[in-house]
């Protein structure tokens, strides 16, 4: 049965999710912030700005009219950057019917409020049912049909199950979860660790530090998760360890690419000036540092990534600071 779906955000991930749903026969309308992107998708069946060379479903339509996209949709899949999610959702709120499914595929934390995306949705779209969609998934590989597995998390079991059915294909497997906090945090905080992984790779430091980084990075993600009420088992799953491994090791990871550039001497400002796509790990690092301080959680890797991004610390100074910390038990 065809479902009316509005997809918000025409970056690479939003475009691929919209394409996946359109190819399944659903009635999909994609909102692009930029009118040139909307025209490229609708008329040329290609997102030349964010997904060049990738053929899209001929039935997929895009527009820059936000309210028109969501009108009448029974499912809204939001893939806009986390820092504009609140304003986007507040704009569409009058058009969203009670009980509409809000599937959030954005991975970030608000830097001022320190709210996770589920909390932002509760405040800006309280009449929608929230589902977090996260896991190890590069857009290009999903479009190419490479086997991929992710997680749909909701406190509403029926909503999670319906989201599974909506998105699943023979090459795109969706698991369900009720741990919205854990799935959201895992998808967000892995971006900070990926920036650190890129720094290590950019400095040519080999495999030993990468293994240590992934292990200790997951430990500090789980510590903050515990403080916020997440299920510890979530961080051993797809939205935790799975997404962390992919984002820290895959060449397609934008957060890892930023880390490589920082190791090569670029500043954050210089990098952002030449890259059109938002790097979620930047704001997430700042928000996670503040959340850790608020809850008294030790997150040394996150703290050092913040020092490199915002305090002009050199990557080598940050690594040295981590290695020279007071010795302690692993757990």
């Amino acid at each position: 049965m065809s479902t009316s779906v509005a997809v918000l955000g025409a970056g690479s991930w939003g475009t691929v999710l919209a394409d996946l749903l359109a190819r399944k026969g659903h009635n999909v309308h994609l909102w692009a912030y930029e009118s040139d992107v909307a025209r490229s998708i609708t008329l040329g069946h290609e997102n030349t700005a964010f997904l060049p060379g990738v053929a899209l479903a001929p039935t997929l339509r895009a527009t820059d009219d936000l309210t028109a996209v969501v009108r009448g949709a029974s499912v809204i899949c939001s893939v806009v950057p986390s820092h504009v999610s609140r304003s986007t959702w507040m704009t569409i709120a009058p058009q969203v019917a009670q009980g509409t499914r809000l599937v959030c595929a954005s991975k970030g934390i608000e830097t001022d409020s320190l709210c996770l995306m589920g909390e932002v949705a509760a405040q800006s779209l309280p009449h929608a049912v929230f589902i977090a969609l996260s896991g190890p998934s590069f857009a290009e590989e999903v479009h190419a049909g490479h086997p991929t597995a992710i997680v749909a998390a909701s406190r509403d079991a029926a909503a999670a199950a319906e989201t599974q059915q909506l998105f699943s294909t023979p090459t795109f497997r969706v698991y369900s979860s009720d741990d919205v906090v854990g799935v959201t945090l895992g998808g967000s905080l892995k971006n900070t660790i990926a920036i650190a992984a890129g720094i290590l790779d950019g400095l040519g430091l080999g495999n030993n530090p990468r293994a240590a980084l992934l292990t200790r990075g997951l430990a500090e993600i789980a510590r903050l998760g515990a403080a916020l009420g997440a299920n510890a088992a979530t961080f051993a799953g797809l939205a935790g360890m799975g997404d962390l491994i992919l984002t820290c090791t895959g060449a397609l990871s934008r957060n890892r690419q930023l880390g490589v550039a920082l190791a090569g001497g670029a500043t954050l400002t210089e990098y952002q000036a030449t890259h059109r796509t938002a790097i979620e790990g930047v704001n997430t690092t700042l928000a996670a540092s503040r959340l850790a301080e608020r809850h008294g959680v030790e997150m040394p890797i996150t703290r050092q990534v913040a020092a490199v991004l915002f305090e002009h610390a050199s990557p080598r100074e940050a690594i040295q600071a981590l290695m020279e910390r007071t010795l302690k038990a692993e757990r």
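The two ends are 50 Å apart (CA to CA). Residues 182-323 form a domain with the N-(1-d-carboxylethyl)-l-norvaline Dehydrogenase; domain 2 fold (CATH 1.10.1040.10).
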